[in-house]
Amino acid sequence: MKSFFIITSYSIASFASDQISGWLFVIDRSSAAYSVQNAFTLIEYSLFALLIYLEIHNKRVKKIVLFLSFSFYCTCIYNYISSPPHFDSLNVTLESILIIAYCIYFFFEQINIPRITFIYAFPQFWITAGILIYLASTFFLFMQADSLTREARRGYWIIAILSQIIRNVLFIIAFLTKKHKENSLDKFDNQSIYTEF
Amino acid sequence: MIFLQTVNTTGVSGVLFFGTIGMLVLTIGLIVFIIFHQRKVIRYQMQLQHMEQEQQKMLLNASIRLQEEERQRIAADLHDDAGPLLATARLYLNENLVNLDKTTQLQSIYNAKQIIDDTIQLIRNISHSLMPPTLKNFGLESAVNDLFQKISGSGSMNASCRFHDYRERLHADQELIIFRVIQELVNNILKHSNASFIHLTQNLSGNKLYIRLHHDGRGITQADFDKLNKSNVGLGLKNIQSRLKLLHGRIYFEKDISQTYYKVTIEIPRIEEETIAPQI
Question: Which sequence ranges are marked TM in the entry (chain A) (predicted)?
Answer without folding.
Answer: 32-52, 64-81, 87-108, 120-143, 155-177
